[in-house]
Amino acid sequence: MDSSMKKIVLALGIIIVGLILVFVISNQGQKNSKELQNQSTGQIDLQWNSDLDASIKQAQKENKSILIDFYADWCHNFKDLDTKTLNNVDVKQKLHNYILVKINGDKSPEIMSKYNITGYPTLMLLDKDGNIIKTQIGFIDSPEFLEWLK
Questions:
Q1: What is the C-alpha separation between 72 and 23, in angstroms, rounded?
Q2: 69-93: buried (b, 16+ CB within 10 Å) or exposed (e) per residue?
Q3: Contact at 8 Å (CB) between 39 and 32?
Q4: CA angle 80, 81, 87 (to 5 degrees)
Q5: Please, are residues 145 and 82 in contact by the beta-carbon 8 Å criterion?
Q6: Euclidean distance between CA atoms 40 and 57, whole angstroms
């Protein structure tokens, strides 16, 4: 390869690296903008886990309580709990202090049996070691739920 061809390849490489950097920086800016927008509009995204054992380890590490939401896809009250209660801005803000776990009871019969869950939805509050603090069976609205968490 002659020197003029090497210069062209080098220039193209520099341009490609520059474009990649611009892309990465602009995507980071969009992410930060979305986070700021969510904060300013009161939208809070919650992280729900499905692995209870890993969640207990995380709770111990972070010294947090665990909230388990036992559900079934076919349960009407579960859907109401999700859309009306757990989607409430005040509830979401409060739930950031907990390790959150959603367990589909139809797919986890061993966990259902372990915690003696007989109906949906069931909310269970555990301490950081996985010991039951209290249980709520059935739909609960946002104000009642916030009071229940105390």
A1: 42
A2: bbbbeebebbeebeeebbebeebbe
A3: no
A4: 100
A5: no
A6: 32
Over residues 39-56, the pLDDT tens digits come to 444 567 889 999 999 999
Residues 21-40: pLDDT tens digits? 777 776 665 544 444 444 44
C-alpha closest to that of 46 among 76, 11, 82, 8: 82
CA 78 to chain centre: 17
- List, as one string, the DSSP characters of the chain: --HHHHHHHHHHHHHHHHHHHHHHHHHHHHHHHHHHHHHHHT-----EES-HHHHHHHHHHHT-EEEEEEE-TT-HHHHHIIIIITTSHHHHHHHTTEEEEEEEGGG-HHHHHHTT--SSSEEEEE-TTS-EEEEEES---HHHHHHHH-
pTM for the model stands at 0.70
- Cα–chain-centroid distance for residue 84? 17
Nearest Cα to Cα of residue 123 among 106, 101, 108: 101
- Of 88, 93, 98, 89, the closest CA to residue 123 belongs to 98
